[in-house]
Write a structure and sequence with these properties.
mainly alpha
Length: about 140
């Protein structure tokens, strides 16, 4: 009975449990949608052509590129100052600023200054909360 109440955790791979479970659930749900809604999925080509023709490609591709770049740079920058959260902080400030400016419709100085203040204050607040209040490390 004693063996049934013990849980062994392999810390080298424990961080992969929930992403793997979530990935499996998403694959099963996607397959269920494709099977049950296959006629709607196969007939949606015209809707997607019209959507891609009307979309703001600069903002869509710019936002996508900034997000990929943000996640790619966070760990290498964090490795320069390990266990300090500087990767998160130094990558989040320009990411929030550039994303805010990218999605801004009117780029005047009066509109950009609040975005820059938020881009500095937001990541600083999150970095301080995680490091000093919750004692969690960020990349």
């Amino acid at each position: 009975m004693g063996e049934w109440t013990r849980v062994k955790v392999d810390f080298a791979t424990s961080h992969l449990i929930f992403p793997t479970l979530i990935g499996i659930v998403l694959i099963v749900l996607g397959a269920a949608i494709l099977i049950t809604q296959r006629r709607a999925v196969l007939g949606s080509g015209a809707m997607w052509r019209e959507t891609f023709a009307r979309m703001d490609k600069a903002r869509f591709l710019g936002g996508l590129g900034l997000t990929v770049l943000y996640f790619l740079l966070m760990v290498p920058v964090g490795d320069i100052w390990p266990n300090t959260g500087m990767g998160f902080l130094l990558c989040s400030i320009p990411f929030v600023a550039l994303t805010g400016i990218l999605f801004m419709h009117s780029r005047t100085l009066g509109n950009i200054i609040p975005v820059l203040i938020i881009a500095v204050a937001g990541p600083l607040l999150v970095w301080w909360l995680f490091s000093d209040i919750f004692y969690l490390t960020l990349p």
